[in-house]
């Protein structure tokens, strides 16, 4: 059968990379259902002596169905992808446009739903094959800022379409009007008709579970021949949620192994700062009651109507939390090149059971630590613990050769990275701690307790008087490129515990690994305080010594020399110790003198070699590097920088943002084009940055400063004029931000509390975004100036009158 799940998405509008998407739910595959004829072939579970290969895809809210030997996932925005091995995915279609092959002329085909929902996109779709051999797509559209939605069904002879609309099945959000159940629509008790999952129960009866936020999750009995709801049900039977609690993306999966129906749900918000997480409850019948591990009836789980909208605290104690934000943190000396393996806001899952092997898979989308709103599909294997609850393998499915041999105490003993997922709905990332499993059944280190091994490699862990039951498995660890021993377990209160065994190392090998891996970043122009690590892998100790503590302390505090004193060179030495093993590593650091104030940088692009160097004509000489930027004559006496919109940009030294108060001033001649181009983008990775775009998703000029998941923005009421020279400026002073066009204020806020200095800028671009999905700037720039103070409105006006 097919497995799928859908979830409602309430998204923030950030920058290009933030897709206005909704979470979908995958569909579950039932081995003995009448409609399951397309999903009975076995999942490939082994790649012998081969390093697993992956090809990723971005499909939000993936709902899975297997047809022949191919898995398909259908998601929001009419995104479709396919794979034969659950590891390598190829895109089939994307975008609610009339050239999408899955639903050609979709704006006409689904016009009624789009018009009712007052939107131009679709949310999480779900597809199932019925007894007539046809494929039924359950599509849905939602206004987004309200539960005004429509849910319909379309049919195709082929899984890849074309699908033809069969009409709307349900509507919601009809304020002050009669709803589907004959009463006035009330969003606190009636559903938002999105995120459908259509499935067969073990007796061959067809159902649809759906809903998001608003009044909760509902289930309807369906006609197996038409694929539509049986009459006179209204919205159906409620299973959980209500009062706008953030519960969505229901997905139903029956397990022949336990004879339970498992209702998967996503709690929280799907954005990188939303704390999205996957939970489950179970029932002996598809329409409930569904209970969590503590026996709580999920029908009683809802937000407190007397608390603010989207009250998470009332719902987070309930449901079995399978996974949320986590990070198997890479410590200095560990293999890998990034910060480790982890997820941010994983959710809107579907699931699949292989009919022949009984293997269970969880399919979901996730964001990732340090990558902002970028998301990809992930597939993990699931196992049942001794209490009949699914536990999720810590690493993505890699089709390893299955090893079912009973483990020994000596094989299990060793150090582990340990993650407790908790029960919270939070943007916090649960980072791993290091623990030791000893051969005498003890657990020591960051966490203490005991462990025991049972038949079929089941494990019982006791810590802080809490008992966790789960399973040991071998998984592929991508940083080390090795198979490692892992465990996944659940407590009786529904808290997930994950562990990943670390390779045993001798002390000298640990010291050598830490020394090789130790870095403090670019040492050629250090103007902000350094975070000097004091620990490496396996608790190796790192101590520091500075040759010039007045400029750079042994704790990383930077004190720049006064203007005119010149830059200072500092030898910063790290000593690494583990047991009796010791070694050292020295970094040569340049601490630049303080800038000549207030003009930090001035770029008039008059030099002949603009193709390589963007000369700073201020006294600070903060020259930039130009990439594919041409010189464009404005007049016989004035030149500008021309950006081709394809690969042109200028990289400035990050030190140009070493200021609390700030002004960016420039003349721009923007050629128009795609949203989220950048006039400038200054920052440090995806977690701290600020940018000015000539047009965001609504076409407006926007400045945003972003720090650790929060945006503070200035948005103009009108677009930036194109194909003409326009003066733009942004000033920050205290908590006040102001944006100007041609000397006139177009946006202002007294709630811009972030400062450029706090961003610790390492990448400063003109004409380029740090998000790879954003287009390059197309047009020209001239007289770009950066100040360490906020220019007055009169000063901005004077610059706006000095046309290039």
From TrEMBL:
Gene3D superfamilies assigned: 2.40.128.10, 2.60.120.200, Glycosyl hydrolase domain, family 43
Hydrolase listed as a keyword: yes
Species for this entry: Paenibacillus taichungensis
Similarity comment text for this entry: Belongs to the glycosyl hydrolase 43 family.
Domain LamG-like jellyroll fold: 660-794
Record key words, sorted: Disulfide bond, Glycosidase, Hydrolase, Signal
Record protein name field: Family 43 glycosylhydrolase
UniProt cross-references to SMART domains, sorted A to Z: LamGL
Position of the signal peptide: 1-25
Biological pathway: Glycan metabolism; L-arabinan degradation
TM helices/strands, residue ranges: none
